[in-house]
Amino acid sequence: MSVSQNQHFGLIGQMFKSDYSWLCARVNRAMNCPQGAQDIASETFLRVLALPDPSAIREPRALLTTIARRLMYEGWRRQDLERAYRETLSQAPQLVHPSPEERLVLIETLLEVDRLLNGLSAKAKAAFLYHQLDGLTYAQIGERLQVSVSRVQQYMADAFKRCYLAMVQP
């Protein structure tokens, strides 16, 4: 282990000792779940550990708060997707219920699609999903979203551009 790696771990270790309990308490206030708060705080420090230069951190608590907040939002978004998936699945005939392994793959795929479309407006995301999952035409989507067909075309172009960029970027 090099000297810089030792310094890196030393800085993170000091931050952990001084701020872990504080971060757990802060996250717990938002989540009202001590175990979940500990998980988020631990994951936050793992993310900090992955940073290339911890000596560049000027406001450790601000950084920790930002990372923890993002992790909470990701968790909540995952729960929302899983809940929507379970609701949809509960309405399907028993013959089309996937195995637990297939469910996991489907949920992971939904999360990846959600990340891919992150940054698009809610209507643009909805347009893409209506078209790709429900097979609706642009006119039908326009009616549902109360926008013009040309606006739906713009939404779709933005979404397809994101998909294309995700495929060509490593």
From TrEMBL:
Entries under NCBIfam families matching the protein: PRK11924.1-1 (NF008889), PRK12525.1 (NF009177), sigma70-ECF (TIGR02937)
Q: What is this protein called?
A: RNA polymerase sigma-70 factor, ECF subfamily
Q: Identify the SUPFAM superfamilies for this entry.
A: Sigma2 domain of RNA polymerase sigma factors, Sigma3 and sigma4 domains of RNA polymerase sigma factors
For the keyword Transcription regulation, the answer is yes
Domain of life, per the record? Bacteria
Q: Name one GO molecular function term.
A: DNA binding
Is Transcription regulation given among the entry's keywords?
yes
Q: What's this protein's family per the entry?
A: Belongs to the sigma-70 factor family. ECF subfamily.
Q: Which residues form the RNA polymerase sigma factor 70 region 4 type domain?
A: 111-163
The record, for Pfam families, names: Sigma70_r2, Sigma70_r4_2
Q: Which UniProt keywords apply?
A: Sigma factor, Transcription, Transcription regulation
Extract the InterPro entries matched here.
RNA_pol_sigma-70-like (IPR039425), RNA_pol_sigma-70_dom (IPR014284), RNA_pol_sigma70_r2 (IPR007627), RNA_pol_sigma70_r4_t2 (IPR013249), RNA_pol_sigma_r2 (IPR013325), RNA_pol_sigma_r3/r4-like (IPR013324), WH-like_DNA-bd_sf (IPR036388)
- One GO BP annotation here? DNA-templated transcription initiation
Q: Which residues form the RNA polymerase sigma-70 region domain?
A: 16-80
